[in-house]
Amino acid sequence: MRSTFMGLEASKRGLFTQQSALYTTGHNISNANTIGYTRQRVNMASTLGYPGAGLNSPMTAGHIGTGVEATSVQRIRDEFIDRQYRQETNKLGYWESKANAISQMEDVMSEPSEYGLNEAFNLFWSSLQDVSTNPEDSAARKVAIQRAEHLADTFNYLDTQLKQIQGNIGNEIDVSTTQINSILKQIAEINKQIQAVEPNGYMPNDLYDARDTLLDELNEYIPVSVERVKSGGNALEIAEGSYKITYKTADGTTMTLVDGKDYAELKALDTAGNKVDGNVDDAATKGYNPFAQIVVSNIGNPPDSTTTQGSFEEADFENSKGKLLSLINSYGFKNTDSPTTEGYYPEMLANLDKLAQVFVEAFNTVHQAGYTLNSTNDSTAPDGGLFFVGEGATATSAGTITAGTIKVSAEIKNDPKKIAASSAPGEEGNGKWATELANLQSKAVGANGFTIDLDRTNPNDANVTYTPTTDLDGATFQSFYESLIGQLGVDGQEAARLQYNSETIRLTVANNRASMSSVSLDEEMTNMITFQQAYNANARMITVIDETLDKIINGMGRVGL
């Protein structure tokens, strides 16, 4: 015998289920503009029919339905699209950071323009030609000294500004590492909350959303792998569980960053074993300590613990993935199997130092073979001194020459007559040697340097030969610099193009993800009407059953009344 009130129970379940669906629709509408929110859906399933299987089950015309129930509230999410999105985020993080670093370098180099190093060279050579035309003119000599100071100052400026940006990138490495640690900690805390909720049979969808948003952000810095770990207990089959996040190096070594409620911390160290902090003029070494390695603490242990999971260096990163690798490549790094410091900014600074060193050595060599206005007819040897000097200079040595230390010697600045513009002693109107100095702009400096053949009457004069300590690969001073600028332009163009490509692909993937996971107000309005009508129909059904029961209870047994 079926229950008299079975229809009431079926409609009551319908009311509750449609009500849950309406509430979920309202939750979706409320979070339509919430970043990272994934639309939710109430999964409905019919309840067990009547009668159940058994020896004493009554015989009925059919298996009668008993209504509907809400089995779970689930996010609408595609794991494959999420993985695609994070892969493209890896690439975009790398190329976006590299494009920004190159753009800042281009702003400092300011080429081609009338303010860059190339123009400073042009003005200097032009001033020497003016001296060759009027060697006895004090004004022409002073202008040449001013142009030389401008050239040296330009070298100094480029060195200072590039090192400042390099230091900022070092600071950004520290900030990025701190941000990564913060994200790992937050994910671990969310895992802990999820582990407490899921065993009770609930789906903490909003916690899932918060965790996935953090995971998207983490993949901007480093590429990671995710493994889901079931919470146990009465957790639903579709529950996502806690995340185990690992990082796999290029050689296959796997390091665990998050495991449930426990997490590791990362620390970026330089070659001196100190934290990378952007100090490119270290007080202890009076130099630059490049990036050496990322140290990963043990899971659950403080970062300063003496025991760690291990470490990985620049060579262990996946190529062109993640903002952290891009920052390291720009800042500069040294791998254990490499004796040299590599990186975008260190290499540019090293090339500027090389250019400054070769230029000063060559120019001083030729200048020392000329005669000043102070020379007399009985001078037996050239009296040209050092024109440019660097750190630690003496009367006979130019010292250490770098782009940051090059300057005009005090002797030349204090006495313009000491510019060696003459090819013979005691000839005020002789500016032939200034011409030779100006002609250095077209001298190619290879491994063997160059020789200037002299045609001078003094028997003590020998040909001037310059043998460089380092060469410019057969280029002139300016063509070497122009090649650096050309390569900078090519690299900047490539970075901008790949950044654009990564942005475009990620946008496409993001649109695909949004089409599935984001809230559509039109769709939610349709759902709202659907669930509302279903709710009303269930309420009407209860009214019908109530009227039926009223007839049975109050109307039966009253024949003739």
Automatic annotation (TrEMBL):
Location comes to: Bacterial flagellum; Secreted
Keywords from UniProt, A to Z, are: Bacterial flagellum, Cell projection, Cilium, Flagellum, Secreted
Every Flagellar hook-associated protein FlgK helical domain range: 102-376
- Domain of life, per lineage: Bacteria
Alphabetically, the GO molecular function entries are: structural molecule activity
Q: What is a single Pfam family found in this protein's UniProt entry?
A: FlgK_D1
Cite the Flagellar basal-body/hook protein C-terminal domain residue spans from the record.
Answer: 515-554
Output one GO BP term: bacterial-type flagellum assembly
The record, for InterPro entries, names: Flg_bb/hook_C_dom (IPR010930), FlgK (IPR002371), FlgK_helical (IPR053927)
Give the UniProt family note. Belongs to the flagella basal body rod proteins family.
Q: What protein am I looking at?
A: Flagellar hook-associated protein 1
Q: Which organism is it from?
A: Lysinibacillus halotolerans
